[in-house]
Automatic annotation (TrEMBL):
Protein name listed in UniProt: L-arabinose transport system permease protein
Membrane topology (UniProt): Multi-pass membrane protein
InterPro entries reported in the protein's UniProt record: ABC_transp_permease
PANTHER family: ABC TRANSPORTER PERMEASE PROTEIN YPHD-RELATED-RELATED, L-ARABINOSE TRANSPORT SYSTEM PERMEASE PROTEIN ARAH
Membrane-spanning intervals of the chain: 12-29, 35-59, 66-83, 89-111, 118-136, 156-178, 209-231, 263-282
Keywords (A to Z) from UniProt: Cell membrane, Membrane, Transmembrane, Transmembrane helix
Subcellular location: Cell membrane
Superkingdom, taxonomy of origin: Bacteria
């Protein structure tokens, strides 16, 4: 095999692997290839896909965010509470998005300006925001009865629910942002070498804050959509969500070392995570075993990233 062919195969190995997996499952698992199941699969990964777009930017800039699951829960609870008190769908959505922006910007300031380690900063935020969700709701689900808000999660266009279209829109927007803007190039630059980027005139701290702010807004949007789908704001929603998002990104070729990301790879990573969970549900695999499999996928994703990094260093 020639070098260009080998390089092409290496670059698209995950895509080819997923296509092979999809074909095998279509023939071996009953109802997997049904239209209802495919739509259900896409709907199940809608929130992961949206948040993976911005997590990709965090990882590419050599950071990460463990607070996304808590932000989803808090935004959903806050949106439901605002809706309950005001009856305004616009205020409910605006309040949730504003909360997400503040949480994200707070993470960015802690990490970029106060030099708090990203693991510690976002772990602390994860606990505090989850606590706020329980305090605000008094530990109870906040019901949603407004049809206008509920339609935010179940309106369909051309046979596909709105959350799927919004996820596709996020992939498109953040793909353009990553590959065709100064913002995207600078994000990869600070992930590859922050000091070199700073010397080249990139305002590293401000850019990191903006990345986390975007992360917060998109995560809050995902939380509002989730609350619309389940018709309630749940303070315990999206527990462990952050690990699924990070797994999807790393499976898609986003390096934990920073400086490397591909939006199409993230799409494939999200689909792999969703397909595995979907198949386990179709096969009635016990939830305890599903946790085991998700953990193995995360470990495999990290090991794959390490192997790729070592191979690139040797070359």
């Amino acid at each position: 095999m020639t070098s260009p062919a080998r390089a092409l195969l290496k670059e698209h190995s995950m895509t080819l692997g997923y296509l092979l997996l999809f074909v095998v499952l279509s023939f071996s698992v009953e109802n997997f290839f049904s239209s209802a199941n495919i739509v259900g699969l896409l709907l199940s990964v809608a929130q992961i896909g949206m948040v993976a777009c911005t997590m990709m930017l965090c990882l590419a800039s050599r950071d990460f965010d463990l607070s996304v699951g808590s932000t989803i829960a808090f935004a959903g609870v806050l949106g439901a509470m605002v809706l309950e008190r005001t009856g305004s769908v616009g205020l409910a959505i605006g309040g949730g998005l504003m909360a997400g922006a503040l949480i994200g910007a707070g993470n960015g300031v802690l990490i970029a300006y106060l030099r708090v380690n990203a693991l510690i900063a976002t772990l602390a935020t994860m606990l505090m925001v989850r606590g706020l969700a329980f305090i605000a709701s008094q530990g109870q689900a906040v019901g949603i009865a407004d049809e206008g808000f509920i339609s935010f999660g179940d309106t369909a266009f051309f046979g596909l629910p709105l959350p799927i279209w919004m996820t596709a829109f996020c992939f498109l927007i953040f793909g353009v942002l990553l590959n065709h803007t100064v913002f995207g190039r600078n994000t990869l630059a600070i992930g590859g070498n922050p000091e070199a980027a700073r010397l080249a005139g990139v305002r590293v701290e401000r850019l990191r804050v903006w990345i986390f702010l975007l992360q917060g807004v998109v995560t809050a949007l995902a939380g509002l959509i989730l609350s619309a789908r389940i018709t309630s704001g749940q303070p315990n929603a999206a527990t462990g969500f952050e690990l699924d998002v990070i797994s999807a990104c790393v499976l898609g070729g986003v390096s934990l070392q920073g400086g490397k990301a591909r939006i199409f790879g993230v799409v494939i990573g999200v689909l792999i995570m969703g397909t595995v969970e979907n198949v386990m549900n179709l096969l009635n695999v016990d939830a305890f075993y599903q946790y085991l499999v998700r953990g193995l996928i995360l470990l495999a994703a990290v090991l794959l990233d390490q192997l790729k990094t070592r191979g690139e260093r040797r070359n």
